[in-house]
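Hey, weird one. I pasted the Winged helix DNA-binding protein sequence into the form twice and got a warning about non-standard characters only the second time. First submission, copied straight from the form history:
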Amino acid sequence: MDVLSPRALGRATLARQLLLSRVRKPALSVVEQLVGMQGQDPELPYFGLWNRIEGFALTDLTRLIEERLVLRATLFRGTQHLLATSDYVRVRPLLQPMLDVWQRGAFGRYTAGIAPAELAAAARDVLGTRTLTRSELGRALAERWPQCDPQWLARSVQGLLPIVHPAPDGTWGRRGATPFAHAEQLLGRPLEAGDVRELVRRYLAAFGPASVKDMQAWSGMTRLREVFEALRPRLRVFRDDSGAELFDLPDAPRPGPDVPAPVRFLAGFDNVLFGHADRSRIVAAERRPYLAADAALTVDGMVRGLWKIKAGVLEVRLFAPLSAAERDEVGREGAELSRLAGVDPAVRLVRL
């Protein structure tokens, strides 16, 4: 088997993630290609698409959300994602076993004594065909279980039912009460589980080459080894420099390790940073803890700093100094990001 260095793996993943060069594709096609966008905060998927699409405008994604061509919901790893609606109806049922475990771990202590199936049925009845805020749903459920905090009852439901958060939730600058709707009622059609083998192929197309553990870390799902084994005859197999087995689609792009990688201001929690168990292809181990709270700056394909918009100015905190050429590139790219966000195009560099 060919051995792939972390740098070679990084270049392959950046190519799949459309981070080596921006593309001229519709926003919906990019969301589909990436198998969703991380959407913990409304602005994050906008930054994510801006990094990948030439000429991206905020209205490109807002329109998709308003027209329900993409949905915001609790999905992979129990976190908020935007997923194309055509994918959501097939992927969400595949995630239910993982979300059952997530619900027990995250909210079990707040809903002790309530059978999950009973809570799910009650929430389904309360919602019906309506869209309620999280607070409204929580208060209605608390009438039946007054010993429980309403907010935790409502939050818990996101793991038990296919709950989506329709527009204006998830749109740029949106802050306020989170709407809850039952996906099947909102869409007017049932969800039908797709083939998990197809999800594996989609994952490899967006994140490969990757191990079984990598996909499990990205999705939160478990026991995927037998699925990969069933696909093995149709996959190409590599090893990383520690000897771990990596799978990939035979014809997927794997550019050389010396292909240039431009500066990118990644969105917070961008899946390129959280799509693998072994993230050494894009971030050094000692820098990983910082990514739980801050957005990352990549230079030459690796995380070299953190960024945030502070008091109307883009502030970049660096782990190590940049060369003059790298500083210039960070300044140019940062100015474009600032224009998208509607803030001062200046970039403030700070050493961590």
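That's the output from the first submission. The warning seems to come from a hidden character in my clipboard, not from the data itself. The longest helix spans residues 324-341.
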